[in-house]
User: Fold these one by one.
Assistant:
Number 1:
Amino acid sequence: MFCGHRKVWEATIEVAALAKEEIQKLASNGVNEFWTGGMGEFDHICKHFVLELRKSENLQFKLVLPYITQKANKYKDLYGLNYNEIIIPDLPDVHYKTLRNRWMVEQCDCMLAYVWREGGGARQTLQYAASRSRIQIINLADRISTIQRKSPF
């Protein structure tokens, strides 16, 4: 699964290069299924590389939505080109993104993340994954300089 802040900021080029490298490594090590929540820049960066790699590898790419959206209904054909499956877990209507993220963590074996801020949903999801000892976590933020990670705000 992919986990990251909504904005990547100045580190976009470096994050993209590292994400591509890690996705290729995961695929070459037998990972054949990738999940995304499809919410932010990091998810979209990873989506690009999974779709690129899927042209030559037998990979599954799945979108996990907290609920069915009007956009997903309207553009089913487009979603079908990008994703092998859209998963909508049976979740209560309270804190749907947090519960969707936890559900994804509970289903996955590996998390590719770009989480550097101390707060927010991505940090909470990363911490939840860290509390589950069986999950391999690769946080690209650990390999990027502090200067490049800073938000312009």
Number 2:
Amino acid sequence: MENRNKNDKRFYFWQQWLFYSSLLFACAGLVLAFYGNNPIFEPYHQLLASNFFNRNTMPEETHKLYTFIMGPMGATISGSYLLLAFIARYPFKKKERWSRNAIVAAFGVWFIVDSIVSVYYGILFQALVLHLFISVPQKALPLIFTWKEFEN
């Protein structure tokens, strides 16, 4: 009985982690959509400018397009993480296996495609740092530590 209670507490921690971190990422997506050219994202912008244009800032003629692209990208990030938050809040919390599998499938495809494109274009920071320090703690750890809870 004590072991079950311990497992329930661990599961609840990771379920809450997934829910609240997803809400945080959904909010970050909105910031990116409406204010993507801000000082918080400046190091990333500099990395892209350096990689694609061999300079420290984006060329002036690309500013409007880049700012526009931040809108749909931020909206997509916000929407996908809001969906993840709802999955974490309801079916994942009920330990419905499909919810775990949906998270693995959806973010697995994203991870693979994003990594391939990032490596292809030489944006190793995105492929390594963002995935290892954001994706793994945010999505992979909750899935790893709760995986067996969905086996019943």
